[in-house]
Every structure is written in C-alpha cells, then in structure tokens.
Write a structure and sequence with these properties.
It contains 6 helices and 8 strands, in the order βαββααββαββααβ. It has about 200 residues and is of the alpha+beta class. The protein has 2 domains: about 5-95, Alpha-Beta Plaits (2-Layer Sandwich); about 95-195, Alpha-Beta Plaits (2-Layer Sandwich). An 8-stranded antiparallel β-sheet has the order 4-1-3-2-8-5-7-6. About 25% of the residues are buried.
C-alpha cells in the first residue's frame, strides 16, 4: 500500500523563501517522483516539513539505504538538517487537505491499553472536527512504522488560518467527543504549516 512520508527538517542559515532552497527541493522531488509538497512551519520558521508519497514503506527504506540516497540528497546537506521522519498509510496525496491555506498535523501517542477505546472514539472526534474544517478534509491514520507497543495516530486538518484552528479548539474543548478522546493519548505534538509554493498563502 502507498505510504505518506512526513519528514521534518531544520534550515541551515537559509530562509524558507530562498529560491535556492525551493529549487533544490524541487529537483529532489523530480528525481524521486514522490509528488512532494513543502511546508514551512508557522510555529518555528526555521523548520520545514516535506510530505511525499511512496509506493510502499519498503521502497522508501530501500532508497535511504542505497547509494542513490547520497547522490540525490547530498546536495541539500548544506541547506538542511534532518529532524525526523514518520510514515502513514495513504492512498494518494490528493486525499490530504492541501488546498487549505494552513495545514495542521497532530501526532497522538496512544496510551497503553487504550487502542480499542481510541478506535471507538475517533469517529465522533473526526465528525466534530469536520464541522470546523469545512470545506477542507480531515484525514486520520496510523503511523505504520511505529512499534506495536507505542501506537501513534496522525491527524491532518485544513484551516483558513492557525487562529481559526485555535478558536475551534477552544470552542470545542469541553465537548464530550473532545474530552473523551483526549483521555486516550498523551503528549500530543501539533504543527501548522503553509505551502512554500503557494504565493497566495505566504
């Protein structure tokens, strides 16, 4: 099954809007054919996130272990530092709310023995979130490279602005759906980004 790569990188003395950075990212996208999109982090502009689709998880791992890795990614090493990569099963990039001015990603680290309860609660949680994100999609999934002992859920939502997301979160903080699912995971990590290639979103 296709998988989504979510890679977070730190900029090295280069701004996210630097044409040289975008050109380098675009060259790699063309070579790998991963339909990648590039986001600059609103909370920390020194971070960027790359989303790309691979045919399988093994295909990405094979590339990273091959000599082609240094040939393709080597020219970026003076621009970027690696932070992390996670993967999630996803049929296509078009499923993500990439048309939104702001993309939000939440990583939820499920508490021990709460997996079944989370699976039961997440449908109502998504239904509530979808009311706030209209017309943008809500996409949920499981991190497919996490250990079975530490399941991790990923939630992608689209918003007109980061402030709109914050306002909706505050409005629904005490809703039954939100309260119920929040008890099932700990230390969530949230991130908001703007597409680096969308001039109307800058």
């Amino acid at each position: 099954m296709p998988v989504l790569e979510v890679t977070q990188l730190r900029l090295k003395e280069v701004a996210a809007h630097d044409p040289a950075l975008l050109a380098s990212l675009s060259i790699v996208r063309g070579k790998l054919q991963t339909k990648s999109v590039f986001y600059t982090c609103i909370e920390d502009p020194t971070h960027i996130v790359i989303l790309g689709i691979w045919s399988t998880l093994e295909a990405h791992h094979h590339f990273l272990a091959s000599p082609a890795r240094d040939e393709v990614l080597g020219p970026q090493e003076h621009l970027l530092d690696f932070i992390s990569t996670v993967h999630m099963d996803l049929d296509a990039m078009s499923s993500l709310p990439l048309d939104a001015p702001v993309l939000a990603l939440e990583r939820r680290f499920i508490k021990p023995d709460c997996l079944d309860a989370y699976n039961q609660a997440v449908t109502d949680d998504v239904r509530l979130m979808a009311q706030g994100t209209i017309p943008f999609n809500v996409i949920i999934g499981w991190r497919c490279d996490a250990s079975p002992e530490h399941p991790e859920a990923l939630v992608f939502t689209g918003w007109p602005s980061m402030e709109a997301h914050a306002a909706f979160a505050e409005k629904t903080r005490d809703h039954a759906e939100t309260s119920a699912i929040r008890q099932l995971y700990h230390n969530p990590e949230a991130w908001h980004g703007r597409n680096m290639e969308r001039q109307d979103h800058q």
